[in-house]
Amino acid sequence: METIAKGAEAILYKNEDKVIKERVRKGYRIPVIDDDLRRKRTRLEARLMNEARRVGVNVPLARELGENKIEIDFIEGKMVKDTLDKGNAKEIGKKMGEGIAKLHSSGIIHGDLTTSNMILTQNNKLFFIDFGLGSRSERIEDMAVDLYVLREVITSTHNQIEKELWKSILDAYKKAMKMNARHAGVGSQNGSDKVIKTLHEIELRGRYRKKSKVE
């Protein structure tokens, strides 16, 4: 197996057409507590990924292996971070918004929506990866925070196409959220409006904190 990435939470190994993700031990935690947390988070991540697949989101198949490891199908493609430009921002933004809406309308919070955690394949499919910080929630605030994380990444990393990209994401998100609510026959078709309103409130709080630090 080849080590392909090391992070604060996990190490990734590539084994042919599979990726093995192993959650690393945290030395500052009591071993019993650490083992329990890693086991629960590993199990939850695999479940969230497979639940997302079942509701139609492009997510690689994940299998829990035990010992704080999951096996994930390797997706051949490029990180969205490295592919976004003025020519494809609108199209990719639409795919992002639709996928996030499917997650949220199914009660899945990704937890780390960045353009590094999205893969664009050669046949132009957008896959969401790394649900290590994910959770289940139907709270408007949690959905808004998910979007806020993505907005911050876009502002800092893709500022040259920020306006067009973000508009495309939100337009697709709002449309897909309402459509998903309609087809499911549950929830409010105006749920996306509440999420966007809460997102704006979070953005205002963020700007206020930044301004206060400067002053």
Summarize the helices and strands and which ones pair or pack.
Blueprint: E1 2-6, E2 10-15, E3 18-23, H1 31-54, E4 62-66, E5 69-73, E6 78-79, H2 89-105, E7 108-109, E8 118-120, E9 126-128, E10 135-136, H3 140-157, H4 162-184, H5 191-214
Antiparallel strand pairs: 1-2, 2-3, 3-5, 4-5, 6-8, 7-10, 8-9
3D architecture notes:
- The protein is of the alpha+beta class.
- The chain is 49% helix and 18% strand.
- The strands form 3 sheets. A 5-stranded antiparallel sheet has the order 1-2-3-5-4, with helices on one face. Strands 6-8-9 form a 3-stranded antiparallel sheet, with helices on one face. A two-stranded antiparallel sheet has the order 7-10.
- A hairpin with a 5-residue loop joins strand 8 and strand 9.
- Helix 2 (89-105) runs parallel beside helix 4 (162-184) and helix 4 (162-184) runs antiparallel to helix 5 (191-214).
- It is globular, with a radius of gyration of 18 Å.
Would you summarize the structure shown here?
It is built from 5 helices and 10 strands; from the N terminus they run E-E-E-H-E-E-E-H-E-E-E-E-H-H-H. With 215 residues, it is α+β, with helices and mostly antiparallel strands. The protein folds into 2 domains: 72 residues, Phosphorylase Kinase, domain 1, CATH 3.30.200; 137 residues, Transferase(Phosphotransferase), domain 1, CATH 1.10.510.10.
